[in-house]
Amino acid sequence: MEKYLAPWMTAHRLTALVGHAGTGKTEVAVNLVLALAAAGEKTALADLDVVNPYFRSRERRDMFRERGIRFVSSSQSLVDADLPALPAELNALLEDQSLRSVLDIGGDSGARVLSRYRHRLAGQDRQLLFVLNTRRPQVNTPEAAAWNIRRIEDIMGLPVDGIVNNTHLCGETTAQDVLDGAELAETVSYMTGIPVVCHTAARSIAERLPELAEPVFPIDIYMKKPWER
């Protein structure tokens, strides 16, 4: 992976990715922590996705180990519980000021998990980024997306600091999908006062995008459904 670091990637020590289920938070989280590690940062990834059985970053545990990335996850045996057990290592991750850490938060349940740490997170050098896939029916209008942001903020007890346009249709994604997502994300930003920090796109698509106001983060696809492997 090339050493690609935009200012939003290193602006804060902790980055938590939140959003509606199925928007691609895990893919963004995995690519972000790999980019940080490739640039020589001491990194960690916390997989707190207790919702989606298909896209868990823990599936790439060996890859993280090979690249020197510290990895912690919620208990595999309790992923279906209302309040799953959180690893003790998460406390150490929050306390270690030498780490650039990425928190992969899964859907509403993940936001409730994160709310248990809101008092500790409030004093951290952190950013909470809302991952927006405008091709998902629950967030495909500015009003619906803005409502989801405010709902997640209420659940977490913490404000969202930025929006990541991660609009895609898996293998059917086109450059126009990303551009449509960028336009809708800008409208959501205007409505909420929350800035768009970047746009993501698979590398083959990123190369064909025109210049946008915010940086484009080219990503590789690591998280595939079981029948795609």
Describe this entry's structure for a reader.
There is one protein chain. By secondary structure, this protein is an alpha/beta fold. The chain contains 9 helices and 8 strands. The chain has an 8-stranded parallel sheet, with helices on both faces. Helix 9 links the parallel strand 7 and strand 8. The protein starts with 6 loop residues before the first helix and ends in a 10-residue tail after the last strand.
Helix fraction bin: 25-40%
Q: Report the end-to-end length measured between terminal Cα atoms.
A: 21 Å
**CATH architecture assignment:** 3-Layer(aba) Sandwich
Total DSSP helices: 9
Quick one: biggest sheet?
8 strands, parallel
In the sheet with the most strands, the strands line up as: 3-2-4-1-5-6-7-8
> Whole-number radius of gyration?
16 Å
Query: Which structural category fits the helices and strands?
Result: alpha/beta
How would you state the average pLDDT, rounded?
A: 86
Helix and strand element order: HEHEHEHEHHEHEHEHE
For the record, what CATH class applies?
Alpha Beta
Low-confidence stretches: 76-83
- Please report which band the strand proportion falls in: under 5%, 5-15%, 15-25%, 25-35%, 35-45% or over 45%: 15-25%
Write out the CATH superfamily name.
P-loop containing nucleotide triphosphate hydrolases
According to CATH, the fold-level topology is Rossmann fold
| Number of discrete domains | 1
Q: What shape does the CA trace take? A: globular
Number of strand segments: 8
